Amino acid sequence: MATIFDDYAAKFAGSHALWERARKIIPSGVNHDVRYINPFPLYMDRAQGCRKWDIENHEFIDLCTGHGSLILGHGHPAILKALHAAADKYTHPSAPTPYEVRWAELVTTIVPCAEMVRFQLSGTEATMLAMRIARAHTGRNIIVKLRDHFHGWHDYAMIEYVPPYEIPGSAGVPPCVAGAVRTVPIRDLAAMEAALAPRDVAAVILEADGPAGGAVPTRPGYLQGLRELTKMYGTILIFDEVITGFRMAPGGAQEYFGVTPDMATYAKAICGGVPGSAVAGKAEIMGDMTLRPDDPEHNRKKRVRHQGTFSANPVTAAVGAAALELLKDGRMQDQAAKMADHMRVGVNAAIREAGVAGCLYGTRSTLCLALGDDLPQISDPAEFAQTVEPHRLLQRVKQPLLKALQCAQLLEGVDLLAGTHAWTSGVMTEADMDEAVHRWARALHRVIAEGYLAGKARTVKTA
Ligand SMILES: Cc1ncc(COP(=O)(O)O)c(C=O)c1O
Q1: How far does residue 418's CA lie from ligand 1's centre (Å)?
Q2: How many domains does the chain have?
Q3: How confident is the model at residue 1 (pLDDT cuts 50, 70, 90)?
Q4: What is the SS3 assignment for 297?
């Protein structure tokens, strides 16, 4: 009988051929490590709403949702209108445009901590810049980072990002970088206080909803405690809201949790699905970037430098402003969260019925999948996430199950990022979610049938 991998190779032969061309000239044939799929990734042709089609016209329910950026779904009419209108005029006038002023006004109106904002092109750039601003503002050199938290792929973000923690998360990071970053275990305010006590810490940066996009949900009271400690030790608090910004709520995690940081970093939803990012924060801190025309000494020695050829380019700024107009009242975020709840209920029922262990959990419109015979059989997402040990949650689905599950999901027409992480959008419907659950349940039964998970394998009828 044909296995998952036989069927995968046969069904997606066109992508395989393209990947064979790509991998000779692009390392692993992809330009983002997470898009690599073993045995080969699928190449996409087009997308609309919550669906996408590969180069051989296979259709998928797309739960990757632009790595979380497409809270308005693919091809939203208001986004396309803004994109075309700006691109028809210019893509780079080498001067500011009205679009970025409107975009900045929206950010500073919607986000609690945002009195001023500067735009860049990626979340990686945003967190790097926020660290620099914090160091300049405080005159301190150390950044405190929480272990396992993700802030992009720059050198500072690679410290204690993945185990083994003794070495940086990537080859090529010089040892001196570790000297500028102090790390603290998650969920541990006593360790945080010990890290801040020497009063040499410029900033604490963290994913407010927990590491790896909320895979280990933040415990109630943690952010409030952290806010107190950072104030006490004169340290700037930075929320990395690259995923949560404009997604958890219009004002992001800081609005949702009711804790206002000094600065925050954004990418993904803030740009409505095109490349871009932002650092926002208190005017007193962000003002360190302000040029003083009559003070060259200050500009050279005290000011924070930031450039970027395509920073706030008109296409991104126009799309970003159009996206925030749609996101400012919170209706899209609430619909996305409702759809995520629907998906959690459906998938967890399928897991329970199949007699396997694991859970689809996550906060608001974020979905995290953990599956494996070593996990408890707990269907309630909140209970599951608080019961399972953080490092097991971070592993989500272990090999060889992960490889089989990811291929089975794609064979059945449902795509989760890296096979385990998903986001809903405000244009998804209950019918979309029911279909996604049904497809996912078929994938689950396939991996059970092939012995990757213990459970009662059975065939799920097609809708
Ligand atoms: C919390 C967080 N910070 C930073 C980044 C890096 O953003 P980018 O991929 O745009 O560089 C990501 C990306 O997923 C993220 O999730």
Answers
A1: 15
A2: 2
A3: confident
A4: helix
